[in-house]
From TrEMBL:
It comes from Peptostreptococcus anaerobius 653-L. Belongs to the metallo-dependent hydrolases superfamily. Adenosine and AMP deaminases family. Its cofactor is Zn(2+). The gene is add. This is adenosine deaminase. The lineage of its organism: Bacteria, Bacillati, Bacillota, Clostridia, Peptostreptococcales. It comes from the Bacteria. Its EC number is 3.5.4.4. The keyword S-adenosyl-L-methionine does not apply.
């Protein structure tokens, strides 16, 4: 895949800091798991369309409907481990050298697995993949905005024993309403006290004020999406002054109607104005993408050259939740 100056994007060392496990499953593996588990998922010919969002959905909520089928199948330790292994294998095959997987353990307890069981299964899948392939990885635990703070705390408590052993961070994901941060102040304070790093989905389906709240009230070090900081000067200033990284997911932002069209995406201005941004997939299956495709868009929109990409890569490494030892190895690759 060539772009500006005939740069082979697929061969570049790449980093994805924002990719959801349940939105990045292989179609053939979904079908295979359904057969193995004896779960009726309807006409197999229809599966790919059920797992993939339209080029433009009405809203984030409509986009999230594509997760219903994956969640149904991700209720056993075996399936979770398998899907995680394939998640990292696919990333490696696209040229990634580091990947932060995020998922919500609470969504995978419908058949009796404990939160710790779920996290353990995903960790095993990641550990096997990173042993088999030269790719580094970490796990971010998502708490759901549409659930209670107590449920968020349960996830934080369950993941505590895995901190430093594959789990590095905590997130708030799911449907976004105005002012959600006020609901989770105690949970994120607890997470920070345990040593979790914090990234929060904000400013995607609601205003930039959610970004400011996520940073000031919840201690977010990074923001998932953060597209709408343009509508809030306070949020904009905080992001610039503190060097907060925005985890931009170009294709997903179009599909969720967060952005009307790619050539009007705010990341173009954010990049030019010196805001710390990284470019990510969000969900490879739901958005029918990979990081090479996303970077091809970015190269074209920003007229990037090799030095421009190197700066993006270095900033992503520095903003990642990897250990200093892993960061140094990643920096050596560029």
């Amino acid at each position: 895949m060539l772009s500006r100056d005939n740069i082979d994007i697929k061969k570049l060392p790449k980093i994805d800091l924002h990719r959801h496990l349940d939105g990045s499953l292989r179609v053939e593996s979904v079908i295979d798991e359904a057969r193995k588990q004896g779960i009726d998922i309807g006409d197999y010919k229809d599966i790919e369309s059920r797992l993939t969002a339209k080029e433009k959905e009405a809203s984030l909520v409509d986009y999230l409907k594509c997760f219903d089928l994956p969640i149904k199948l991700m209720q056993t330790s075996q399936a979770l481990e398998r899907f995680t292994y394939e998640f990292f294998e696919d990333a490696y095959n696209d040229g990634l050298v580091y990947l932060e997987l995020r998922f919500a353990p609470v969504l995978h307890t419908q058949k009796g697995l404990s939160l710790a069981d779920v996290i353990g299964a995903v960790k095993r899948g990641m550990d096997r993949a990173t042993e088999d392939y030269p790719i580094y990885g970490n796990i971010i635990l998502c708490c759901m905005k549409n659930l209670s703070q107590d449920q968020a705390i349960e996830t934080i408590e369950a993941g505590k024993k895995f901190i430093g052993k594959g789990v590095v961070g905590v997130d708030l994901a799911g449907p976004e309403c105005e002012g959600f941060a006020h609901k989770f102040i105690d949970a994120m304070k607890l997470a920070k006290s345990y040593g979790y790093r914090i990234t929060i989905h904000a400013g995607e389906a609601a205003s930039g004020q959610n970004v400011a709240d996520s940073i000031e009230l919840l201690g977010a070090e990074r923001i998932g999406h953060g597209v709408r900081i343009f509508d809030n000067s306070n949020a904009y200033g905080i992001v610039i002054d503190r060097g907060i990284l925005l985890e931009i997911c170009p294709t997903s932002n179009i599909q969720t109607s967060t952005v009307e069209r790619m050539d009007a995406h705010p990341f173009i201005d954010y990049y030019k104005e010196g805001i710390n941004v990284s470019f990510n997939t969000d969900n490879t299956r739901v958005s029918n993408t990979n990081l090479s495709k996303e970077l091809s868009i970015v190269f074209d929109m920003l007229n990037l050259d090799k030095n421009g990409y190197k700066n993006l890569y270095v900033n992503a490494v520095k903003s990642s939740f990897a250990s200093e030892a892993v960061k140094n190895k990643l920096l050596a690759l560029i």
